[in-house]
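User: Quick sanity check before I run a bigger batch. Here is a single chain. Can you write out its predicted 3D structure?
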Amino acid sequence: MTTQQQEQEKRYDPGDSTLKFVARPDDITLDDDPDTLRAEMSCGHAVTPQSLTAWCRSLLDQGQYKFLCPALKEGTQQKCGAVWSYQEVRKLAVLTADEQRHFEEAMAALAAAEFCEYKTCPGCESFVEREDHLNLSVRCTICTAEKGQFYEFCWQCLRQWKGPGPRADRCDNDGCTNKDLDLLKKCAMMTLPEVKNVMCPAIRACPTCGLLVEHDKSGCKNLICSRCQKEFCFVCLKLTPECLKESSYYSLCADGVAPRQTAIPCWKRSST
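Assistant: Done. Predicted structure follows.
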């Protein structure tokens, strides 16, 4: 049986007293089929196993391991944003054994990527974690032990470190440039059709952690960063709660379009 067939077969047990069944439309798909049984999530919004599975899988595909409710708060244009636990999602999405395995492996990998930053050492090809995010000069303990002297490489150009350190901009190797910053400066412009055709750079750095992200050109102007999980406006680069104080998800920002970024924010994790 294919994954699609398994999803179509999913049904709630009408006799399950641990679930709260409701007669309201599905708050994710807005489907109101009277023959479909819908259950209420902890935040009060209604779902079916199919809609919940599809939504949470789409979040994982976008690099997000926290499951946030996408429904709008009643009478507003603000998203609910409640965080559902994996245990709740697993139960109300009626995840199959294969789906549970996929979800758990993806969640583990994404969580690890959020809290650790690794690159391959050019000397021994082992994975090295960078502890100081303001220093491009990174010491490899394996190479240092094998060579009997300090071995440091450049986090930016991935070559053996050349020049004085520590430094946050570049080493003295030819061509050592911040490729992410170059991309921000040179990327094409894009149009957001559902936000009054506003134009902005096609690539942005998350204002919280600096991860480079692209908008798929559909839907509203806001994105949730896959690394720090903060939602921000792709147009004005404010965090969503700030942007929404004077605009909506589909209207022009009060401060207009933020210019191309000339610096990449450094993630201060303790503040998130």
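The chain has a mean pLDDT of 89.

User: Great, the batch can go ahead then.
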